[in-house]
Amino acid sequence: MHLRTDIGATNSSTTGTTHNVPEDLETDVLIVGAGFGGVYLCHKLRDELGFKCKIFEAGKELGGIWHWNCYPGARVDTQVPIYEYSLEKVWKDWYWEEKYPGHAELRRYFDHVEKQLDIKKDTYFDTRVVAASFDTESAKWIVKTEDGRTAKAKYLINAIGFAAKRHFPDWK
């Protein structure tokens, strides 16, 4: 399976920690994407079910599309509390400023989520997956990154979301 490599822009308004993927990375679960889905899966599989999990994220911070969508007026189209995690340790001390939060508030929300769930310790930022294949002999996924590194995982989850493909309107 070959994956897209067209998400090449960076969001200079955020500053994340960039980790280099080790040459010999092997894990139970490899999640591609650190948006709402990827972050939740990492927490659920790692903290509640005991799997060894790692995330590969193309951006420099948690948030998925909310790392990339930083244009003026960017906001959600679903009101909170629907657009948040239902985990008590996340929502119990978080208070939204708006019913339909904008980009800046969502960035603060993901900072809060990080403080509660400690996801970054298992996330490799600035890491783009370019290929993945299943090796039947080892019963593992072999995942290649844009910088030429290889990782192995028993399970591979693509949590790249429906809005992962960038679109540039044909405007002058």
Automatic annotation (TrEMBL):
Residues making up the signal peptide according to the UniProt record: none
Pfam families, A to Z: NAD_binding_8 (PF13450)
Record flagged with keyword Transport: no
InterPro entries the UniProt entry points to: FAD-binding_Monooxygenases, FAD/NAD-bd_sf
Cofactor requirement: FAD
Keywords: FAD, Flavoprotein, Monooxygenase, NADP, Oxidoreductase
Similarity-based family: Belongs to the FAD-binding monooxygenase family.
Name this protein carries in UniProt: FAD/NAD(P)-binding domain-containing protein
